[in-house]
Amino acid sequence: MLKRIFAIFRARNREFLRDRGSLSWNIVLPVALVFGLSWIFADGNRAEFTVGVLGGAEAIDEALHPFLGTRYVDFVPVASVADGELAIARHRLDLLFAVDPAPRYWVNPDSSRGYFAERTLLQLDPDARRVAIRGDAVRYVDWVLPGILGMNMMFSCLFGVGYVVVRYRKNGFLKRLRATPLRAIEFVIAQVASRLLLIVTITSAIFAGTSWLLDVRMDGSYLLLLLVAVCGAVALISMGLVVAARVTSEELAGGLLNMVSWPMMLLSGVWFSLESAEPWVRSVAQAFPLTHVLDAARAVMLDAAGPGELAEPLLTLLLMSAVFLSLAALLFRWRAD
Amino acid sequence: MPAAAAGFICAPEMPRGGRFGTLRAFAARLRVMSVVLEARHLRKLYPGVVAVDDVSFQVPEGSCFGLLGPNGAGKTTTVEMIEGVTRPTAGEVYYFGRPADARFREEAGIQFQDTALQDYLTVRETLELFRSLYDRRANLEHIIDECSLRDLVSRDNRKLSGGQRQRLLLAVALVNRPRLVFLDEPTTGLDPQARRNFWELVRRIRADGTTIVLTTHYMEEAQVLCDRIAIMDEGRIIAGGSPDALLRERYRNVIIELPAADAPDGLGGIEHRLRDTDGMIEISTDDVNEVLRQLAARTRGLNRMKIRQPNLEDLFLDLTGHSLRA
């Protein structure tokens, strides 16, 4: 079994590495994304702001303070100053605001979005008092980098595996393999292993490069971060294999993969925090592997999370992988017709 | 001819002569006649179409068995059911007397009609990949030489010509030292020279004792390579046996062909048929001298006339009323 898995694994690696166009694209795109987006977000141009308001939902009332009626701002209740400060430090909130006993606010001095939210508040209430946040604030690029790398990993896992399997099926290569002793689960595992090696290698190289160029913050263990990347990649590749398990047309595969990847890109916290999202949106996001990958990666990089704190997201990712892999092997179709 | 004609392995005759020598020879013949593969009542239904209808046959060890028929006759579906690539609607496949299972996959070599290989791999890497999927492994260097791939081992398999590619696909089918090899339309699309080279290669493989199951719609190919054939049409086997026996059984005549344009006033009382495909007149006779005498009197000349033995194409036409390449 291992011998057959290794044979397919090695052949797929050779195919990928010799396909120069695909290889270059996998390296160039994420690097361009990191630099492009860090430049874009340095200016901060998101249309909406998220402001935390100390207290319950009843605290968000325009009658209590004119700032609470500002348009294009999402106001969300925050239970405690400590929670709010952490959310600001991690760019999940742009500003924390409290009305009682006197209007005061907390803002991340390194957040461009926080700066604009602050300007808006001070225009309405010049007397609002700024409170320095405790603990260290992270730059937006530190917060967004795991998102960008995770997103690139997601696309590479889903499309890299999905399209390849559908192409193999369409051109009859899978049918030829079917006539050998190779079993579906062996083929599936080999595809996961091959893609995993390539993705983890490329993602690690990009991470190292951008860390060096942008001096990205890394408080936790590199080994744990690698573990998060490996578990996340396995879950995402397995998800791609489920999508590709039966499909015979690249067009349909593209549509299905987009249908899976876009909600993840929007709801998994790649670009912005889901702090202010509806509870049902946050529940849906929990079903996406990328959400757990990004939560775990940010916890390691920004909060120096240890193995204990990572157990839950990692176990969730492993469970998802097991379910997706079993489904992919069960549904797997060798032939196009 | 009924479908039952397909089951055509004959019991060996009892040998005569000295007791032990003859017994050994008899035992050897029994071994030669052992059945590698048996298809029993295979049937494949697709919505609104019966692709294969109650097909049964046996393939003796060491033989080259040909499944012959026009495109769409059900040959490929039949072999793919045997290979385990297509699930039969009904029927069973036996390999050495037992239901085909993992042992069959390990010991059978398969060359499909259309097979893509993994991109960006060289000929050698492709062979190594497939060889790694089996526990039974052939000597790769031997196969490379046998299939005349020595000069191509480092070439990307996407850059092979049609004939080179077919040789590679055959080599892929041989990487597990198969006891049984399936060749599905292996020479379709090859030029005549490449086709003949391929036949020579198949002969060499067979000479090593490998059993071959060949599907083809080329009559000549079946006549040259196969010692047993089954003719399929519309999903059924309509005749089976050795090519020579089938032709001997049915034909005692020879066939005279000449262009219709050479006999503008007709052939009078000579029984004949006009081939629509190429405008040739075909006369079947057991008295060539008499027919030639009459033709000499009725035609413009016999320079373009041909006299030949009936072949499988004629047999198929007689059995079905339509041409094999229709």
Provide a short characterization of the protein structure.
The complex is a heterodimer of chains A (337) and B (326). Chain A is an alpha/beta fold and 337 residues long. Helix content of chain A is 65%, strand content 7%.
Rg result of chain A? 23 Å
Query: What general outline of chain A do the C-alpha atoms trace?
Result: elongated
Average pLDDT level of chain A: 84
Q: Characterize the largest beta sheet of chain A: strand count, sense, and whether it forms a barrel.
A: 5 strands, mixed
Q: Walk across the major sheet of chain B and give the strand order.
A: 6-7-8-3-9-10
Order of helices and strands of chain B: HEEEHEEHEHHHEHEHEEHEEEHEH
Number of structurally distinct domains of chain B: 2
Number of strands of chain A: 5
Largest interface: A-B, 26 and 28 residues
CATH architecture of the largest domain in chain B: 3-Layer(aba) Sandwich
Radius of gyration of chain B: 23 Å
Corresponding CATH superfamily of the largest domain in chain B: P-loop containing nucleotide triphosphate hydrolases
Number of strands of chain B: 14
The share of residues in helices of chain B is: 25-40%
Main beta sheet of chain B: 6 strands, mixed
Tell me which oligomeric state these chains represent. heterodimer
Distance between the termini of chain B: 20 Å
Molecular structure report:
- The complex is a heterodimer of chains A (337) and B (326).
- Chain A is α/β, with parallel strands linked by helices.
- Chain A folds into two domains: 2-40 and 139-331, no CATH class; 45-131, D-Maltodextrin-Binding Protein, domain 2 (3-Layer(aba) Sandwich).
- Chain A has helices at residues 2-18, 20-43, 81-89, 112-124, 140-171, 173-178, 184-214, 222-243, 250-267, 279-286, 289-303, 307-331; strands at 49-54, 73-78, 95-98, 104-107, 129-131.
- In chain A, helix 5 packs parallel to helix 8 (222-243).
- Mean pLDDT of chain A is 84; it is low at 43-47.
- Chain B has two domains: 3-244, P-loop containing nucleotide triphosphate hydrolases (Rossmann fold); 252-308, no CATH class.
- Chain B is 33% helix and 25% strand.
- In chain B, the strands form three sheets. Chain B has a six-stranded mixed sheet, sandwiched between helices. Chain B has a four-stranded antiparallel sheet with strand order 2-1-4-5, with helices on one face.
- In chain B, strand 7, helix 7 (192-207) and strand 8 form a beta-alpha-beta unit.
- Chain A binds chain B through residues 3-4, 6-8, 10-12, 14-15, 18-19, 168, 171-173, 175-182, 334-335, and chain B through 83-86, 102, 105-106, 108, 110, 112, 114-121, 125, 128-130, 132-135, 172, 176.
